[in-house]
Amino acid sequence: MVRQTLAQQLTASLVEQIGNGTYRVGDRLPSLRECMRLFGYSKNTVINAYEALASQGLVEARHGQGFFVKQGAPISSEPEEPQPFTRAMDTIWLMRQQFVREPGHSPLGEGFPPVEWLMDLRLDKFTRQIMRIGVTTLFRYGNRLGNAALRQHLVQKLASYSITASARQIVTTHGANHALDLIIRRFIAPGDYVCVEDPGYYPLFGKLQLQGARMLSVPRLPDGPDMEVLEQHLLLHKPKLFFIQSVGHNPTGSDISPGKAHRLVQLAQEHNFILVDDDALADFKPASAIKVSALDQLKCSLYVGSFSKSVSAALRVGFIAGSKDVIDELGDLKMLLHTSTSELCERTVDVILTEGHFLRHLIRLQERLKAATAAGLQMLDEIGAEVFVRPEQSLYLWARFPHIDDARELTRQLLPKGFMIAPGHIFSPEQSRVNPWTRLNVAYLNDPLLKAVLRG
């Protein structure tokens, strides 16, 4: 068997995507630079692949614009159902795009706060302290549920949210994404129905696709999920889980209303499904913000928390809280898949929580966020943008700009001018749909140059 070159592999992949309708007649293929970044290929490899497509009559080159799918390109009438990994790769590529920091570009679409907002914690100081105390334990695997001292601090953290739990009801994870992965592996089998918010957290969609789950979209409204659509899904499909974000919703920045939170808990009890409350942005909101997990006290919900955005993404420390039986199962699954989480990282977070630095850090963090949100809203008002919801403090704002019907086009317009945004289509389970909305990080929004570019 003759081994294909990288150019031939890329050509074959694009031929298949054109054939199954991923790229339709008139669609523009990724630019050479975008394709190089997405696939990790050299410029010559991409050029050779695109020229091969052109020679087959599938695409045409338009000077200064790129390569476009031609009229008459063969389209499969009955495309094969893509395998879970193939479907999940779309999300993987999107994550690569989001995690790349281009020099000289303003990261308007970035999911994290600026590093300067986190630097006051001085992680180097805590690391030295940890190395002086109980250093021998750092050479062994940790407890399957996680560092005991940290879990006790998490009991107190949950109590500040009015969630009562013991340390045996908490398992630590490598951040919120690992937590979601463990929950999906435990509860979802291929073909199972699950409800997700639309728009919602797009890495979750990739995980569910990888597991072979069937996603049911529930529109996210300014005050929480669309309850009528959810109830229809519950009656027709009996989903096993509903993944939600009570507060600081990613990407809209919205918070759930008390009435909807109570109704969600009632529905979970009536229809026997699990509410997965992904609260990775909890530290950016007041502790009094309502959470569905506080209403049912973890009877029909799982609470997911993280320190990635408020302390450091490099530490990779998160956690799941739930009933003791479920946490025992998730702890066993975690041990099977990863043996344990990082004792060093978890002790670092434990020391930060122990010495009271964290509370002072959160006060400064939320003050910065409140000021940035107000400034961002003012700027959007001045250029005539429509804002989905107007929170007092939120890392994200969900907005659409005048005369923009597809945020992907806005993305292409802004990139050469030094601004990288997160277009709305990536936050939907149906990513092929045209979407005029975009997620904006408030920390980078109040930029005079951006205002001038958007006005122009």
Automatic annotation (TrEMBL):
Superkingdom in the source lineage: Bacteria
Domain HTH gntR-type, residue spans: 4-72
Q: Cite the GO molecular-function annotations of the record.
A: DNA binding; DNA-binding transcription factor activity; pyridoxal phosphate binding; transaminase activity
Entry's Pfam families? Aminotran_1_2 (PF00155), GntR (PF00392)
Please give the Gene3D superfamilies that the UniProt record associates with this protein: Aspartate Aminotransferase, domain 1, Type I PLP-dependent aspartate aminotransferase-like (Major domain), Winged helix-like DNA-binding domain superfamily/Winged helix DNA-binding domain
Q: Which UniProt keywords apply?
A: Aminotransferase, DNA-binding, Pyridoxal phosphate, Transcription, Transcription regulation, Transferase
> Which SMART domains does the entry link to?
HTH_GNTR
- What family classification does the UniProt entry report for this protein? In the C-terminal section; belongs to the class-I pyridoxal-phosphate-dependent aminotransferase family.
Q: What is this protein called?
A: DNA-binding transcriptional regulator, MocR family, contains an aminotransferase domain
